[in-house]
Amino acid sequence: xxxxxxxxxxxxxxxxxxxxxxxxxxxxxxxxxxxxxxxxxxxxxxxxxxxxxxxxxxxxxxxxxxxxxxxxxxxxxxxxxxxxxxxxxxxxxxxxxxxxxxxxxxxxxxxxxxxxxxxxxxxxxxxxxxxxxxxxxxxxxxxxxxxxxxxxxxxxxxxxxxxxxxxxxxxxxxxxxxxxxxxxxxxxxxxxxxxxxxxxxxxxxxxxxxxxxxxxxxxxxxxxxxxxxxxxxxxxxxxxxxxxxxxxxxxxxxxxxxxxxxxxxxxxxxxxxxxxxxxxxxxxxxxxxxxxxxxxxxxxxxxxxxxxxxxxxxxxxxxxxxxxxxxxxxxxxxxxxxxxxxxxxxxxxxxxxxxxxxxxxxxxxxxxxxxxxxxxxxxxxxxxxxxxxxxxxxxxxxxxxxxxxxxxxxxxxxxxxxxxxxxxxxxxxxxxxxxxxxxxxxxxxxxxxxxxxxxxxxxxxxxxxxxxxxxxxxxxxxxxxxxxxxxxxxxxxxx
Length: 495
Fold this sequence. Notes:
Blueprint: H1 2-20, H2 28-47, H3 57-86, E1 101-107, H4 111-121, E2 126-131, E3 137-143, H5 145-171, E4 173-180, E5 184-187, E6 196-199, E7 211-222, E8 228-239, H6 242-245, E9 249-254, E10 259-261, E11 264-280, E12 286-290, E13 294-297, E14 302-309, H7 317-323, E15 324-332, E16 335-338, E17 341-344, E18 353-361, H8 378-382, E19 386-395, E20 399-401, E21 407-423, H9 427-446, E22 450-458, E23 464-472, H10 479-490
Antiparallel strand pairs: 1-23, 2-3, 3-22, 4-6, 4-21, 5-7, 7-8, 8-9, 10-11, 11-12, 11-21, 13-14, 14-15, 15-18, 16-17, 18-19, 20-21, 22-23
Keywords: Cytochrome c-type biogenesis, Membrane, Transmembrane, Transmembrane helix
InterPro entries: Cyt_c_bgen_Ccs1/CcsB/ResB (IPR023494), ResB-like_domain (IPR007816)
Protein name: Cytochrome c biogenesis protein ResB
């Protein structure tokens, strides 16, 4: 047990970096920023897996050693406890007056009557009657076996919790996706539908729980200070037989009220804005793009992003790579401009505006390499393959006319919501084992192991000498009062 306690302390100590440092599984961008800002120190922490604490070799080693230690502790303790349950209470000590709690009194009853009365007082105790060589009658009594039961329950539940967490990490998955709140849909059909996806060790993404969501609207309530009060997304969903019948069921999705369907949970994580840009090309063709932009200020929802366009009617790849457009910059839901610099004064959509750079040239989208939807490839700008052709602040409905006659219009704003889908079939087991741990801990802390002996020995003049002794097997706190109460009940006239 001492080893298990040391390992528990080491496990808590090993988890500290996971709480103090950004973790790759949660925020890759924050990890990259931390490493860049801290130089060699950040690189050293990365080499020792400080940004992947819960998947690191050293954390796993402590975890496994704790598992082995608990098993090694529980097996012999369970065997000893089973043996103790079958054993009878120990013999009555020869001199009860040496015990921490003792009491002696003369009684007019016979030893048999005293023993019979004692059995009634000790109802609920495990008792054994014995007769000594000098004719004295004794009772050995013991109580508090549930203390060890609670202790074992706590540790077995901890063992079960560790196993359930391990199984959950193997078969669970978690993914995040951004969905426009304009009737757009998301279906849990595969990993390609997610913006980010973290599978368990035994999940390959081909057998996800099938369901579909449709985000109809989103409402954010703010306090006058701009602090969010409540987020609510109106969604419809299909799962199970509804997928066959085409039935949509409504649900009001809130931050602390996830949708639970088919064993999966859908959480509302956050929200933002997607400015709508309409580009009219020189040949008269019009294209509209609605792409989510990323908040850079969570208080005012000032956002940054990049909306990209391919020119229509251009079939030559080389020519197309000279005419691709990207609209980058900042979006403010409630714009405020100081010295030509756009900012936002409130997170709600009251007076939207954008400050954009219109870039023309090669966006790199034909290279086959993935790139962020929130930004352009800076290396293409540095190499001159992508150049800025316009810069301007736009209010809703404003437009820019480029040198080749292309018109870029800020034509609208949509809201988007960030959803997280979590699948963990082991979660009910984790909850059950956690509750069992609390019950076991409560029992082991409240129940006291104690022993009590009664000896009724024939005395002078036909009287009986009754001696009572008590011993607490654990903490003695509170046993003195219980012993005094039992001893008083065994005195003459207390039947």
